[in-house]
Amino acid sequence: MDGLGSKNNESTFPSFGDLDDFLTKHNSNFIWLLVATILSCGWIIYLTYYNSRNIGLILTLIINRLYKDGYIHIGSFSFSVLSGKVMFRDVYYINQDMSIRIQDGFLIFRWWKMYNPKQKQHDPKAETRLYVTVNGFEFHVYNRTDLYARLQETFGLDPTLITHKKDEERGREENSKTLESVNIKAENPDPSSSWRSLIPVIKVNISTGRLAFGNHHLPQTLCVNFEDAFLTYATKPPSSHLDQFMHIVKGSLENVRVMLVPSPRYLGMQNDE
């Protein structure tokens, strides 16, 4: 019986010698080519359909582990070093005050362009190095907890809101900002170390977008819909010595519509007028 069992095991699990003899008799080059072809097809399918999604899932987990003041989701993420292109899909950021959603988009960083350290930081006519294209952009503001908390503190009301910043931290930040604004003229940062000297102009293209302001406690929500927005962001020297620089956004919007729509799930009293 033991001899029969050992023979069955040998017949079920061939040895390396038997496998080598089998490959030699049946043209091993063709078999290895078939195996390599199957593995290559599987790898191409993974890179095409699943790699960007897995990278987006990993980035979502890492970012939310480090960032605690909101939730950030990245559906898919891929990049190309040669073309300087970063592609993303199903991206949204949600906190207690607002939400930003992007259906899909990409950005191109033209790293191959020569960098001139002597280039002016505030040159709106400079050649752009960063180009952003977004499709399905939504920006919704539904709360202002920081402002409400300050009003409660000003009028001596009992705090009913939980803000993501403590009062002590907010006070320290305001003090640090005040000190920085006072010492702006005393400190002259190196232009070559500033991001504005590397990217003086940013061009943004939004195919379809929507801005919304309101929540379910208001009877109506202000909505601004637009299509084909071409925006150019740059900076200029400040008009006041207390400022570091001035933001400038120029562009054009098509098919702009401003509407007051009924808020879904409105909890207040209905007006029949």
TrEMBL record:
GO CC annotation terms, alphabetical: presynapse
Occurrences of domain Bridge-like lipid transfer protein family member 1 N-terminal (ranges): 6-273
UniProt keyword terms in alphabetical order: Membrane, Transmembrane, Transmembrane helix
Biased composition annotated in UniProt, kind: Basic and acidic residues: 166-177
One example of a Gene Ontology biological process annotation: synaptic vesicle endocytosis
Membrane found in the keyword field: yes
Residue numbers spanned by region Disordered: 166-188
Membrane spanning residue stretches: 30-49, 70-88
InterPro entries from the UniProt entry: BLTP1 (IPR033616), BLTP1_N (IPR047104)
Protein name: Unnamed protein product, partial
Organism, scientific name: Scomber scombrus (Atlantic mackerel)
